[in-house]
Amino acid sequence: MSHQPSPRNPYRWFADPLPWALLVLVSLMFGMPLLTPVFKALFPELQRPLYLQDTFPALVAAHISIVAISSAISIVVGVGAGVFVTHSIGRDFRPLVETVVAIGQTFPPVAVLAVAVPIIGFGTQPALIALALYGLLPIVQSTIAGIESVPEPVSEAARGLGMSRWRILTQVELPLALPVLLAGVRTSVIINIGTAAIASTVGAKTLGSPIIVGLSGFNTAYILQGALLVGLLAVVTDLAFDRLLQRLEHWRHAGEEKRTPAKTSPVLGGSRARRGGQTGQLPPDKA
User: Fold this and answer.
1) Engineering a disulfide at 209: which of 56, 109, 200, 250 sits with its beta carbon 3.0 to 4.6 angstroms away?
2) Is residue 201 exposed (0-12), middle (13-18) or buried (19+ Cβ within 10 Å)?
3) Cβ proximity of 66 and 128 under 8 Å
């Protein structure tokens, strides 16, 4: 009995939370002024219930920009450090690197800002330093775990084929470690999206601006507006990483199936034998 693949549901995207979360984020980003009556009803004691010092699309763009730059720095430094300590040349430095990135994770970003501001001044730069340090630990740990998960026979086979260290790293180890590495990048980026809100305390424009202004002016509506957008941005980013990991896994399985030689199934062999009998050809063992 042949197995027929189940038909794909054309309406399955209705159950996908990613487009819905993205729709809510974009709607709030551009339509927040339309909710002024709602905030007036929720907070009647406030004279100005809507944050008007900057537009929310500009705040979202600035927030994404800071997170993207700091995450890129964390990825370059974290992956480089992880690769360095998993090979013979840097294996002795592994305890030192793990201790340093662990300190960077446990050191409060506010404290990093307090130290950096007197040296380099207010603005985006101290926020980038704090966020890059804060996001290092998950990337370093995932890089080490991903490269160490590569089976030793695979690396031995690559060396046996005469591949250089660089080709083994870029064509064997990093591609096989990519799912684990991306999981660490996902954690680091989500952490940075939430932490980037404090960058507004040193003059950087982020979605933390309405939160900081709301806290200093006892305006709960401002805090709610900033927190909603930060939370939705983190949810959308997390779901996007989830889709990327699923797609990566699908490509990986598809590549493995292509590399695996096709096996002759008993059913196919039997049907071929039957077809041979119908056309008057003898089976190979009787020819």
Assistant:
1) 200
2) buried
3) yes
Sign of the CA dihedral running 253, 254, 255, 259: positive
Sign (positive or negative) of CA dihedral 49, 50, 53, 59: positive
Of the chain, the end-to-end C-alpha distance in Å amounts to 30
Residue 26 is encoded by which pair of tokens? 């974009």
SS3 73: helix
d(CA 191, CA 134) in angstroms, rounded, equals 8
Name the token pair of 269.
């062999």
Is the separation of the CB atoms in 206 and 217 below 8 Å? Answer: no
Query: How many whole angstroms separate alpha carbon 99 and alpha carbon 227?
Result: 33
Measure Cα distances from 126 to 66, 78, 120, 200 in Å.
11, 19, 7, 11
Alpha helices in 196-287 (DSSP H): 208-217, 220-259, 266-278
Q: Cβ–Cβ contacts within 10 Å for residue 277, how many?
A: 11
- Note the pLDDT of residue 279: 42
What is the pLDDT at residue 261? 53
pLDDT along the chain (287 residues), means of 10: 57 80 93 90 89 92 94 94 88 87 78 77 84 89 90 86 87 89 93 89 87 90 93 94 86 69 45 42 42
One-letter identity of residue 252: R
Q: Residue 286: what pLDDT?
A: 42
Amino acid 101: pLDDT: 84
Structure tokens at 63: 């927030």
Residue 210 · residue 129 · CB < 8 Å: no
- So what's the pLDDT on residue 264? 44
109: burial class by Cβ within 10 Å (0-12, 13-18, 19+)?
buried
Length reported for the chain: 287
- What pLDDT score was predicted for residue 263? 47
